[in-house]
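Record filed below.
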Amino acid sequence: MRRYSACIEWLFAEDGDNFPDRIRRAHAGGLTAVEFWRWTDKDLDAIEAALKETGLAVTSLVAEPMIALTDAANRKAWLKGLADSVTVAKRLGAPVLIAQAGDDLAGFSREEQRRALSETLKPGADILKGSGVRLGVEPLNIRIDHIGYFLDSTREGLDVVDDVARPEIGIVYDIYHSAVMGERTEDVLDGRLDRVFHVHVADHPGRNEPGSGGIDLAHRLDWIFANGYAGAVGLEYRPTKPGADAVKAAIAALGG
């Protein structure tokens, strides 16, 4: 049975609400897992209490600080932050941390930036080793949402993972970003699905709920699961309708 994880940065959110109440709303709506982005701007004690109260799991959160891994000068600061992020992930029971590569930097060649990225992830793997937490680097689209970002290709993201060659390092595969970049899931992931640690979904245009646009999300997810993926699917979309029923309809559109 597929497990869906509500990204409570956008889902179950109400203006002026208490962030941990989103966990409670997700539970009341029938979800079994949630995820969110940054942890440094949140009340972790309150989040932990809401998780224990509801029994919900956390599937992922962001490894901080969110600074460019394409810049070797950021390596020391990022590795320190990664160690802190692993501690938080273990506390909340999150098996995956998400990292973004950072922007395509002026004054550095693509080869230099890719080398900096790989050489930062390698000692990062040492920090992750034995923790039960893995790190997924996330390719993002540069056509709409992340103009100027370095890592816009799933294939190149997987190539970086292969360069690092550590089981602690993989990718987050966001179907929305991949589709916006014109990729076919079965092409870019064929034979390499074991490097995918987490999956995100949203539809296009709008990055709204599944079923609202033209991405063949159900087909792509069917392929991913048929080929051995066993992780969670993060519902990371901007909802146009509030409430649990709208989330259930989005899940239904995914075939789940």
About this structure: The CA atoms of residues 139 and 151 lie 5 Å apart. The radius of gyration is 17 Å.
